[in-house]
Every structure is written in C-alpha cells, then in structure tokens.
Design a protein that fits this description.
Blueprint lengths: L14 H27 L2 H8 L3 H7 L3 H24 L9 H16 L2 H12 L4 H10 L3 H12 L5 H25 L3 H18 L8
Helix pairs in contact: 1-2, 1-4, 1-6, 4-5, 4-7, 4-8, 8-9, 9-10
Length: 215
C-alpha cells in the first residue's frame, strides 16, 4: 500500500487547462449573475468574485462587459446543444416511430427554454436593442450558434430534409422564445401549453412522415 510520502504528487495543470478553467468559471458566474440580477444589475466586480478571479485575470480573457456577456451566451448554448444530443441518445434514429422521436425532441428543447439560464439570455438580447456595444458583441459572438444547431438537428433527425429542417428550427425557436418572454410577464399559464401543443401537432402532421411516405 502506498504511503502518503510515496504517493505521486498531483499533476500540474497545463497553461491551456488553467486558461480554460478560468474562462469557464467566468462564464458560469456571468450567467448566474444575470439570472439573479438581470443585465443592468450584473456588475463585473461581483462576477469576478463569484468566479474567484482577479480583475486582471478577467481582463486578460474578456476586455469588457459586452464581450463577456456574448461569450457567456455562446458558452451556455454549447452546453445546451450537448445536453440535447445526450438526451436524444435515448431516442436513436430507427429505434422508434419518427413522430415519437420528434415529439421527444420538441419537448426536450422546450425544457431548455424553461431553464432559469434562458431568462438571462432573453434579458441580454432585449438589452441589446438599445445598447449598440452589446448588440455588436452578441451578433459576432453568437454567429455560429445557428450553424451548430443545424448540425445537431441534422444528426438527431436525419430523415428530415435539410430545407425543411432549417425552416423548422427557426420557427420552433421563435415560438418557444415568444412563450418564454410572455412567461416573464404573466408567469406560467394554461395558454402556454395550448400554444406549444398546437404547434407540436401541426409540425408533426406536416413534416414528420412515416417511413416510405412520399414527400
């Protein structure tokens, strides 16, 4: 049995690993702070404290608030994309009826819109309307999110034609964003489920065809 004196010292993290760890801590702290305080109330000093990093370390990675906020949105989206793929692994293509698979994916995507962090994203995009610096940073920092969403959707739903898939993604995203925004004012209402279920049924009937059906 190895004694304490014989135990190997812990492996020192590389500089790249330390940088990645600092960035992740900052981005997670940013999302948490915006969830609690909104964009206007999110202070850089509090984010740095939550992340356990100095102002100098934060400046080394993100020069200003807008850049940090944009990176946090992209970071959150990437996590949600990974979670979506992992969740849909329980519904592999060919493993069950396509309509059942689509409905499972639709509801999983809605669960992401119900996540508290989504409120932070909505707050940032709303703030960008009157904040040119934030608007520019979000536009640049999240430019790849649509492409990433299409890549994930194409792997999860390979039987959907790409033209249909692209339009569906935009439509579903717009619908769920609208429902989530309304909840911010009125709270959860029975109307939310009515809207979501109606759209779910319409999409399933129009686009999700049984195997061998003509398109």
């Amino acid at each position: 049995m190895e004694t304490r004196s014989q135990a190997r010292p812990p492996r020192r993290r590389s500089q790249a690993e330390r940088r990645a760890s600092t960035r992740t801590a900052l981005l997670d702290a940013t999302i948490a702070c915006v969830v609690e305080r909104g964009y206007a109330g999110a202070r850089m000093a509090e984010i740095e404290t939550r992340a356990g990093v100095s102002r100098g370390a934060r400046l080394h990675h993100y020069a200003d608030k807008a850049e940090l906020m944009s990176a946090a949105v992209a970071h959150l989206f990437e996590r949600l994309a990974e979670d979506f793929e992992a969740g849909m692994a329980a519904h592999p293509p060919g493993g069950e009826d396509e309509a059942v698979r689509f409905r499972a994916g639709y509801r999983l995507l809605w669960s992401h819109h119900e996540h508290p962090a989504q409120a932070a994203v909505l707050d940032l995009f709303a703030a960008a309307r009157t904040d040119p610096e934030l608007r520019r940073a979000l536009a640049e920092g999240t430019a790849g999110m649509g492409r990433r969403a299409r890549e994930v959707a194409a792997r999860v739903f390979p039987n959907l034609a790409r033209r249909e898939l692209n339009g569906l993604l935009e439509s579903i995203q717009a619908l769920m964003t609208g429902v989530a925004l309304r909840r911010g004012v009125y709270g959860e209402t029975p109307r939310d489920e009515q809207v979501l279920a109606l759209f779910e049924d319409l999409i399933t009937q129009r686009f999700v065809k049984p195997p061998g059906a003509a398109r």
